[in-house]
């Protein structure tokens, strides 16, 4: 039986949370044994998971800087999880003093933690909402207070869309967000895929199984399926590529082989 | 910042590069490797300084270990790699440019050992600092996440509480009745609306079992659906259901029951939503009552009666029914003389009495309208019962009814139909009863008659013809046949009598003796007669045009019958004149036949139009002469020029020898007629012997089958031509 939609995830700390597992992969201690146990299981099949997470963080950092270079100083980070370091607001503030950031997550613990971290910061806030209900996000007091939707916004969907099953129509949700954004807005996406993983798919399926067991299914999508999220956007060079390939500022040779798993891309709204 | 190749700065950088390369794979930093290296550079500088210090400052080295944790090198592997790098490269890259010792020696063996010792102390201090910082960071993060979890749980609990409070508000404030029961049927929770619906006492609902709420009106599937739901085979169902309230009154509801399952899908509870439809149902019943009952008497009306009758007739092969159709005798007189209010009061009293006559199950009384009532019985022995029912009705009416201080004697006529149900439709049954009732009425009223198929058939035709007559004229269903009038002297055709026929779409050609009385009764005879006159006159004119030139100034005349009604119609003279003028026919070519009986006792007013017509030259014939009490003395007063002898006189002459009495009478009449200057026409001549006799007796003209049967107008034309040759 599926967990009913109205029961918030992450609140039952006997159940692993993807946000806290992510923190664990990144060497953080914002997690509990159940989270670490699930993460360890997932890593039995894909030992390079931490490197994939690291590549995600690195891509996000580059995407935020790119956005600021493009003149965008408003950020909507959906699926922000538990920010350990190198958070959007830190990166953005370093690039532009007046940058404003709204974090969104549907994990109440992640949101509570974010709020604790952001206390006293009047340029960043965390909203408790679900990507599957874009209207809740757009209508949240945090978005209303911090973002001017008449001006371009950078929408960050980093390592989140692969947690939304087709049954919940993530494409429609992304389209609804797109429609609410001003032309010139950017969308930055990373997404898990069997493509680029340095182990056979059968092995990667072990990890998929772990996420299924913790009731947060990991949906592997093909590059083509991921490209569909950019409908209504013009792809920014170099397009939809493995994460390290996206506007790399370092030698690719130094990258861990796992960091090439999945895809990343940025689009600009027409 | 440029660095002199292989100078101290350059060497320091090389150390940092080696260090960052060793650490980078085991960090989780989002920085690039060069960025990461730039973060390690100040730490390397610190280490170089510590290596050079004679007095070891543990705190500085400790800070380097802590700084590593701050750059997110939180893996134990990071410490191990750091210690390896320091061990292998710190002295090598950072240990040569030390200060000269007091003795001025540089780089001595003692010095090198001193550096190694310091390096070792540095490693211990870095490790301790790393461990301490990592422990602090881990504790802080664990504390932070626990606090966040607690806080979130508080928020969620609050939200759940608010949601629960909202739910309870909805539950209790809902206008719809809501109840929750377990799968055994025990009611666990009911809301205020449900309590109100059941009469306001909560304890009479909570704890009760759902299965107790049966009601006689429950359709069988109500409880079948319930069983399926509690078994988990059905998610929900919706029915219309009645409940007894504790006070015994009935509550009608639209009931929706849903199965509630737990998170694992196991059925747990049943949720009932109830909408009180009692009022709506009562309103519907009232509207239905109003639509099916007569407002004046409160009896079922025609609609309801037909429903019941149809139901009775559809009851099956073996079922029978009995029906009494009652019409009050002389009710119109009551209405006309005492007024409608009195008439209405009379009807109400009659209705009450009838109601008391039909109290057995399967019996009903209805008012069809006006003073027409019906009583239906569908009991086991209708043959006997309907007879008794009619008897009871007659008896009930026998006591006078008091209206406005008068004792009114009410009588009625009843038509009874009784028979097997499956044979006829409701309309047919009712018509039969209606006809039978009329039969009772025609037989004098105050009686009942039993339907009889033959009488029905006759009456149905009569009834049908009467209603079809007006339409028939519009549709041109009438036509005229002409029977020649032959001059007995020379056998020439002198004219013809116009005889109207009705070509009925179902019954075929109908003779005038069947429909003329009906037309007279309904008044249709006036337009019909006028039409016949028009047609006949036009036809005479046609004959005149065709044959007139050949005949010696004697045009073919046409005889047209006038009914008593037409005689008194004020437009008779003007209509006739207009018709003749329009056709261009001389008045002398027209003969109007009037029956003797129509003129019996006629006063001058009645005769005046006939006189006018006679003066104009139109012949008037006295038809059926000799059938009534002929007032011979009256004959001279009448403006007639022809006597038509009834066929009764000629029948005795069909065979030879003729009845001598008949001969004498006819001879006398002819003599009388001629003395009054009247011509004599005889009808019904069927044999040559008759014709011979009548000629000898001095009759002028004859008509009958011997000469020709009535036929189409062109036949007459042919006869006339044949006669001329």
TrEMBL record, chain A:
InterPro entries given in the database record: SAM-dependent_MTases_sf, SAM_dep_MeTrfase_SAV2177_type
Pfam families for this protein: Methyltransf_19
Protein name: SAM-dependent methyltransferase
Source species: Streptomyces lasiicapitis
Listed Gene3D superfamilies: Vaccinia Virus protein VP39
